UniProtKB/TrEMBL annotation:
Xref: PANTHER family: S-ADENOSYLMETHIONINE MITOCHONDRIAL CARRIER PROTEIN
Keywords, sorted A to Z: Membrane, Repeat, Transmembrane, Transmembrane helix, Transport
Keyword Transmembrane: yes
Primary subcellular site in the record, as a coarse category: membrane
Membrane topology: Multi-pass membrane protein
Solcar repeat locations: 22-111, 120-227, 244-330
Entries under Pfam families matching the protein: Mito_carr
Protein name: Uncharacterized protein
Family statement drawn from the similarity comment of this UniProt entry: Belongs to the mitochondrial carrier (TC 2.A.29) family.
Location(s), subcellular: Membrane
Stored InterPro entries: MCP_dom_sf (IPR023395), MCP_transmembrane (IPR018108)
Gene3D superfamilies attached to this UniProt entry: Mitochondrial carrier domain (1.50.40.10)
UniProt source species: Flemingia macrophylla
PROSITE patterns named among the record's database cross-references: SOLCAR (PS50920)
Amino acid sequence: MAVRSSASSEAHASKNFSHGDFFLWKEFVWGAVAGAFGEGMMHPVDTIKTRLQSQAILSGVQNQKNILQMVQSVWQVDGLKGFYRGVAPGIIGSLATGATYFGVIESTKRWIEDSHPSLRGHWAHFIAGAVGDTLGSFVYVPCEVMKQRMQVQGTITSWSSVAVKDGIAINPGTQMYGYYTGMFHAGCSIWKTQGLKGLYAGYLSTLARDVPFAGLMVMFYEALKDAKEQVEQRWIRSPNWHVNNSFEGLVLGGLAGGLSAYLTTPLDVVKTRLQVQGSTLRYTGWLDAISNIWATEGMKGLFRGSIPRITWYIPASALTFMAVEFLRGHFNDNSRDVGRLLVDKKSLQGDCLKVSD
């Protein structure tokens, strides 16, 4: 009677059930769910950040509010609804970004490390994150344009009161752009008035912000994981010591997201203003926006909204990485268990046939 070792069975199971192509679709699903979860939880903070960064266009450089004043203003004028304006396109955009980000990142990282060994380590992580985010930008950017315009509008009452101030109106008595009742209305209105160019307003500035951010976040996350492992090997040698993958993703993901968010804040300010300005072109392009903000507002203008941006990204990144690590661990463990059962079943059937012979 032939007997297979458990090691060979597990190796066979791993070969059948852990193949990259088999699990690729799961990476897309995990990333999409995690991205949408993070966006939905933290959307009110993103609304405050967007309004802080765009108020120079809406109310002028000299009349800008701080964080507490902006929160108070949104609550008094728009109520709770104002904090959640634009949440639908925000979630849809995060679904696309999360799916491509986590779905592409692992395969890209492996391909880079296998085909270009000199790029192993942090460079591979940076490039993989950048590629994943770039692919998602084709869906994410139009959603971001709709989301941010709905965020700065608030309710119809607040939009009608600020959209006709000096420097905002296209012609006397007209609004910068009409009020959007929802995501579908926003998309159709932008397409009708500005075409594809309007839906992809600030596309290059979005890539200029998100490619470095995505690359830095993956690089920082992997670097923090490596540092944690080195600390464990050098200082913590207890066999009972174990850090849950979900908790690790929560802490390290939050740190990586917060640091990356702060470093890329100036790029976020430029992107937001280009997407919010509509047909009233205060800035003609990316470089013009940077030079104009620097000349009129200085360094403070380029880092405006950095605190709510960090406040958004720390928990959003933490929740996203936690969810992904949990789903990876949970489903991979279940898949390995199923693989072992099927292999053992086939082995037993083969042994029974041999005995009957």
